[in-house]
Amino acid sequence: MAAGKGFFTDTTICIGCKACEVACKQWNQLPDDGFTFTGMSYDNTVHLGASTWRHVAFIERPVALSNQDAGDFSWLFSSDVCKHCARAGCLESCPTGAIIRTEFDTVYVQPDICNGCGYCVVNCPFGVIDRREDDGRAWKCTLCYDRLKEDMTPACAKACPTESIQFGDLDDLRQRARNRIDQLHEQGMSEAYLYGASKEDQPGTEGLNAFFLLLDKPEAYNLPPDPIVPTKTVKDAWKSMGLAVVGMAVTAIGSVLLAGNGARR
Amino acid sequence: MPDHNESALSRWPVLRQVKNLDPLGLSNSAVSPRTESLAARTKKVDKVAASVCPYCAVGCGQLVYVKDEKIIDIEGDPASPISHGTLCPKGAATFQLVTGSNRVTNVLYRRPYGTKWETIPLDKAMDMVAERVKKTRDANWEGKSENGEPLRRTMAIAHLGGATLDNEENYLIKKLFTGLGIIQVENQARI
Amino acid sequence: MGTSFGRGGATTFPQDLQNSDVIVIEGSNMAECHPVAFRWVMKARERGATIIHVDPRFTRTSAVANMHVPIRAGSDIAFLGGIIHYIVENERYFKEYVVNYTNAPAIINDEFRDTEDLDGLFGGWEKDKGQYKTSTWMYKGVDPEAAAGARESESGNKGEPVQKNPIQAEHTDPTLQDPRCVFQILKRHFSRYTPEMVEEACGVPKDLLLKVAETLCKNSGPERTGAFCYAVGWTQHSAGVQYIRTAAIIQLLLGNIGRPGGGIMALRGHASIQGSTDIPTLYNLLPGYLLMPKAKHDKDLETYLKLNESPSGWWGEFPKYFVSLMKAWFGDAATKEHDWCYDYLPTLTGDHSHMNTVVDMADGAVKGYFVMGENPVVGSMNGPLQRKGLRALDWLVVRDFQLIETAEFWREAPEIERGEVRSEDIGTEVFFFPAAAHTEKDGSFTNTQRLLQWHHKAIEPAGDSRSELDFVFKLGQRMKALYRDEYDQPRNWPIRDLTWDYPTKGPAQEPDAEAVLFEINGYTVSDRKAVEGYTSLKDDGSTASGCWIYSGCYRDGTNQTARRKPQGEQSWVAPEWAWAWPHNRRILYNRASADPEGKPWSERKRLVWWDEQKGEWVGEDEPDFILKRPPSYRAVENARGKETISGVDPFIMQADGKGWIYVASGLQDGPLPTHYEPQESVIPNPLYGQSCNPLRMEWKREDNPYHRPYSDPRFPFALTTYRLTEHHTAGGMSRWLSWLSELQPEMFCEISPELAVERGLRNGGWATIRTSRAEIEARVLVTNRLRPLRIRGRIVHQIGVPYHWSSKGLVRGDAANDLISFVGDPNVSIQESKALTADIRAGRRSKGRRHVTSGPIVPEIDLKAEERDLPQVRHKPETRHGYKAEETKEGNI
Amino acid sequence: MSGNLFPKEDAGIDDGRNIDLAIGTLSGEGASQLAHPKTQPRQGSKALWSRLPESSKADPTYYDWPMLKEPVWKWEIPLYYYLGGLAGTSLALAAAAQLNRSGGLEDLIGQCRWIGIAGVTAGGMCLIRDLGRPSLFLNMLRVFRPTSPMNMGAWILSGAGATTFTALALSRARGALGSAGECSGYLAGIFGMGLASYTGVLVGNSVIPVWQESRKVLPILFAASGVTSTASMLEILREDRPSRRVTYIFGLGGRIAELAAIKAMERQAGAVSRVARPLKKGKSGLIWRAATIVTGASLAMMLLPKQTRRKRVVSGILGTAGSLMMRYAINEAGTPSAQDPRASFYQQRGRLAAKETGTTE
Q1: Same domain, A146 and A44
Q2: How many CA atoms lie within 13 Å of C570's alpha carbon, on the beta-carbon side?
Q3: Which of A16, C610, C634, D260 makes the best surface tag, with the fewest CB within 10 Å?
Q4: Taking Cα atoms as reference points, which of C484, C504, C508, C507 lies closest to residue C496?
């Protein structure tokens, strides 16, 4: 197995140009997502989905950034992508084995296998993977698995003009991210923090292969503050199921026996 | 790597789970043959043409991948000192620009007072344009001004365009039109 | 740029921005319009540089800048003037640089009168002509008559002779104390640009201006440098050239030109817009900034050369370049005896720029029109007037990828939708030729940093698609064939003698682009070998070169523009990547990166320096100087041409080798920048009695109505137009692409929450925006990124409108440029589209009215009640059909 | 636009990529993704944001846009839950009845198995119908992935089907075959109990807040509802005395358990009130409440003094309806729950706060 690969998206140097969105669509040759004006700042694709595997969020806020002199206002951009979680809800819930973990420690949907059951859709704590209704299958970022196999940089990271999206070996990326945080804190940007950079940061997913440097609460970016992969908590449900089965058995046997006894009486 | 001749049954991931001691089926037992043979499409190409982004004037490097005389991919050229392989959204969409089905590939003609386009052959259209240039030039030639100053020109033909064209094209445009006495040659630099 | 430093091109290149300590981005939304160039700004920021964005709107550039300065659109000169004021008053300029490398010590004519003296006008205003007599602006002791109008590299010269004479100060004061020296004049000129005044004019709080000025000053000097980046936010104004001049003055004062991390970066919107100026598809120029002959003055070759050749500085070489061009064009016919075919060239009689062409077209004087790779109906101002022009043509040729609005003006346009014009009534014959894409042809683009980059053909063009190269080549062949029988007439001789024998190749027999580039580079006539560079060109007919500044691009017989040595394998300057003009130099005037003795100003900012041992200039970049000229060299008496360039003259293209803080000659509207209000403004000029640029070009026509110059009650808001990252200019290359269209799918406008309340507009809802030219509708984006400005005690609201959309493509919307009138900068005839006035109302447009076809959109008010200021009567820019301003009421509907 | 005449008609299927295949090739990973001209992607009805597009300092969301994706499941899936519950519980009851050899329950056993096989088949068809690529339904058995309740369910469903089929086929057999049939019957009962309750795990194993928060009750609720479903079905179908008695006790237990589970679920999900909102408001809330009432009514019918055939049928119909509606409501609740970003945010913030203060759930 090759070294784990991933993305470190440093939102402090994102300029919201959406090159990543287009580069992704170009490389993967995805269809558009509809031409709808949303009124949500400059964001007209709104969220990741079956045909949008990179998405740039635009957040206008009445709060100043600590390194900026521009009144009580700031405009944040963040390029969102599938997180390729260490514990991936989609992967663990996929009943067909269409979703696999690759040798690069990324999570990949095999389009020839997926039968579109839709279970992964409700198992992604980030709302990333989606089924395209006219196609019938579930789709998401592949972390350019085809390119990784040829030792190429994923399309989005390659295109990113300011290197806000950094691609590389996970260990290296994490180190880079920590250095960056230290640097920003030194410069007085106390609001900067890492999101999902490690198992400790985000126990619910045991860390993300695509992690972020953010400047506001996760919610502002439409990211969950404490995501948990369902399989981590599903033990409770299995236990209940055991209980239910026992209860059911008791009720069934009870009814049969009681009824039988009653009949004889 | 499992070999590709194995039977359908032995490719059944459940059996491979047993073989690979993969009780949860989360590692590579479920890999399909397609996935195994997956490769970047730029790996096997006939030609990679070094190019330059046609949108703005930053001049980012592009690589155009060609296979079977068709473009399969256009992306940034990492060798470029300007762009280091990066592109903006427009640059990243160049593939769609040059291969788009919206592109018209035949010459269209709208006759005076007409309400629709007609297709005409390229050569014929070129002949027609040349004739019109000649006719207009001849009918509107200015040799000298009222004060006797040399003019040597026609003001009845004008040109617009150049900022999106190659230097060589601008050169021929300027050369030919100046030769014809057409001076109203302009481009987007003025707009 | 040309007038301040000598060459009309960016002085630096994007990669160099990473070396800056402060970057001021003004008049440009760099992060949105040039994301990849902005990469280098971000690198500078990561290295600790301060990024300052001055813009009416808080854009994606502002979002990542350290400072955002909201400014009223159209008030940039006042803002930058405030910075000059600060630098001068506080003596923060880089003294050694200013004294040695600029014309600050030069003494000016005693008769010179400044705007300070004349309330907004310079001396020499000729009321009856509506223009300046510029002779009083000259250096003291220089014969004003002989130098009555220097060679201008831009267009719009209104007819004064353009003799190039020694424009070199006769008298100087290196202490900068003489009251008539440029420095003192500058100081006086900008004395009223106080922080308080700037606040009034721009709506920029005093403290913010001071902070910007101080940041700039702090980051200049021997150890530090700062850069300015601008784009059409500056050029598209009625005083556009002067906007850039103001920045040039700051950069000269702070010693930021020719040094790493310094300079002025012009950011251009089209792949080869620099190239189309260098090899101009512009009426007033021949390739390499040689001027087109003017009917009135350039009567023969002798006069033409005399008026253009400069006895001092680099333009002394002029005849070599001109003769080589004629050799390239007319080959063997161009002989000395025949004056090198000088009389084959058509001549100019005034301003024949785009706007005049369109107006002439609307008046029926233009019969045939070629449009190649442009979409003027969407991209140029007053679209309805443009369409009116197209309707009046006999024939129109459009070359593009798809049926753009300009090709289908007869089928799809607001006036056709409204039924005011019927297709059946339009007599224009239209030819649409499908164009080949850049992937389907070989050729070179010249990018914003003057870099020529070759792109290789990847595939053959489909169907009838052809390159413009092929089209023009074959049109030329046909013209020769058609005129073959009429070669007895002299007017057809240029066609006969035009060298047009390019080799062809490929299935479509397309001309070989490299052969054309070879001709551009130049060759020796006898053996057809490529010349090494422009220094090899001769005026005896032994060399030919299609564009002298590009000479060297085919050095050694190889295509230098196709060089692609990877960036990792060479220095950060990357001299072996493609080829830059002139002479592969990347930072212009880089002699200035060394002190007068030729040593770097500092280790940190070294670039080019004098190597005593080698006896030549060396460094990381190709020296932009005479290689073996030592710093100690001084011109001897009676020296001519380039022998006049001394060892301390970094600006070799200027006659005096200095950076021009004061432009004694060459500009129409003043030697120093002055703040004028836009043609249509929300307020009167707070600085002077003269409100607008007195030399602005107006087209007072029925089909081009103007608002009141200021405070028009019908149009209470300021409006500015701009671009978005997701689209490309008029949209021909983006509105048809689904991957881009989905990102910005609809025309919208941006307004502040306060204006939204005032006009009852809702985010996401519809608004109708109105000027006297048109009314358009747009979705509303309410945002605090647009702030109302407090100017002179009142609130000024601004409306932001991107201009990418029109009636065709995957995503559609009204065209913003329909709102804008024809007004132009006097020096370069560029449209003013970045600042005007407008009204905005809630709801959708009634039916998209356009003044040209629908009649008045808003009730006319008596404009005479508040007469526009100077000029009241003036000759409009002369065209063949030269008309007077007040006499063009007949402009029929 | 009067006819898109000239951009070539043959090249022009509008698939969101618009590539002229004579010039370019489509071979990327997403190139096979079908996109029809006029269909918008899911959640394509991008709502127009009509307020000031500015994020709030205290309680930010991203334009209130869903953080999660809505479930794709339509009516087939709740129907399958019901059918699975019905079939599974019937098989369990049949197996239990096998224990009481002297009870005269042979007919009941047979009927239960028939209900079982019918439910499994119909349920399976519902599942296939709901797939985006129905032809690939067999891929469900491609792997054995215990982390996926759906995969487990596929095996359980197959197991239940196979064993029931065997049991039915061998129901008349004697000797070894008979024992095998018998054995299959018991196995079918075990599979059946799994089938009736795993769907609760399946739903609980998700990120949809209202489902996730209810994960402890859901299997019990679904099992109880299964009991109700089977009892109700038998109430409608059967009149013989032994069956009636079995059904009565079974149904009573099921209904009481179901109602208790409903209450428990409301409590659990209601720990963060925003999470429970879909059970109270909107379409899902309405159905949910209706399900509770109908199930309650069916219980009440059973408790009415004189039990008549008509009352039993009414009670059976009410029980069936309640069971169906309950499952439909739960499925339906997934949509508003996914659509409400604050449901997730509050749920998770609550969890974080609890972690911080050391209180566990």
Answers
A1: yes
A2: 17
A3: C634
A4: C484
Residues D294 and D249 in one domain: yes
Is B122 within a domain?
A: no
CATH number of the domain at D144, please.
Answer: 1.20.1630.10
For residue C640, what are its two tokens?
């001519």
Residue numbers of B between 111 and 150 with CB closer than 8 Å to C: 111-115, 117, 121-122, 125-134, 136, 139-143, 145, 149-150
CA distances from C495 to B155, B172, C294 (A): 17, 13, 21
Of A124-133, C429-438, C695-704, give the lowest mean pLDDT range: C695-704
Looking at the structure, tell me whether residues A255 and A179 fall in a common domain: no
Contacts of B32 in chain D (CB under 8 A): none
Contact C396, C386 (CB under 8 A): no
Per the structure, the complete domain to which residue D106 belongs is given by 72-205
Dihedral angle of Cα A42, A47, A49, A51, to the nearest 10 degrees:
10
**D182: Cβ–Cβ under 8 A, 6 or more apart, which residues?**
D98, D167
Residue with tokens 């060394």: C594
Which structural domain, as residue segments, surrounds residue A261? 234-265
Tokens 């006819």 correspond to what residue? Answer: D3
The pLDDT of residue C104 is above 60: yes
Residue with tokens 């490769």: B39
Residues B153, B176 within the same domain: yes
Tell me, yes or no, whether A192 and A256 share the same domain: no
Q: How many angstroms away from the CA of D22 is the closest CA of chain C?
A: 8
Same domain, yes or no, for A138 and A258?
A: no
Percent of chain C residues topping a pLDDT of 90? 72
How far apart are the two ends of chain C, measured CA to CA in Å? Answer: 39
pTM of the model: 0.94
D191/D240 same-domain check: no
pLDDT at C893 (0 to 100): 25
Q: Say if residue D141 is in the same domain as residue D187.
A: yes
Please report the pLDDT score of residue C147 as a whole number: 38
Rounded Cα gap, residues C644 and C646, in angstroms: 6
Say whether both D135 and D243 belong to one domain: no
Of A51, A57, A16, nearest in space to C29 by CA: A16
Residue D343: inside a domain:
no
Q: Closest to B35 (Cβ–Cβ): which among A110, A155, A159? A: A110
Q: Are A66 and A190 in contact (CB under 8 A)?
A: yes
Contact assessment for residue C662 and residue C185, using Cβ atoms and an 8 Å cutoff? yes
The correct answer on CATH 3.40.50.300 for the domain covering C697-887 is: no
Alpha-helical segments (H) within chain D: 76-99, 106-130, 149-169, 175-204, 209-213, 218-237, 241-269, 273-280, 282-303, 309-339, 341-357
The domains of chain C are located at 2-266, 697-887
**Which residues in D lie closer than 8 A to residue C763 (C-beta atoms)?**
49-53
Task: Compute the distance between CA of residue B187 and CA of residue C284 in angstroms, rounded to an integer.
Answer: 12
Residues B23 and B59 occupy one common structural domain: no
Subunit partners of chain D (3 or more CB pairs within 8 A): A, B, C
Q: Which CATH architecture has domain C2-266?
A: 3-Layer(aba) Sandwich (3.40)
Quick one: D168 and D217 in the same domain?
no
**Which residues 8-37 of chain B have a CB within 8 Å of chain C?**
none
- Please give the Cα distance from D98 to D189 (Å, whole number): 10
Q: Which residue has the tokens 């024949």?
A: C352
Burial of D2 (0-12, 13-18, 19+ CB in 10 A): exposed
pLDDT band at C477 (very low <50, low <70, confident <90, very high): very high
ipTM value > 0.90: yes
pLDDT at A1: 52
Residue A135 pLDDT greater than 50, yes or no? yes
* C763-770 average pLDDT score: 95
List the domain range (segments joined by +) for residue B21. Answer: 1-38
Domain count, chain B: 3
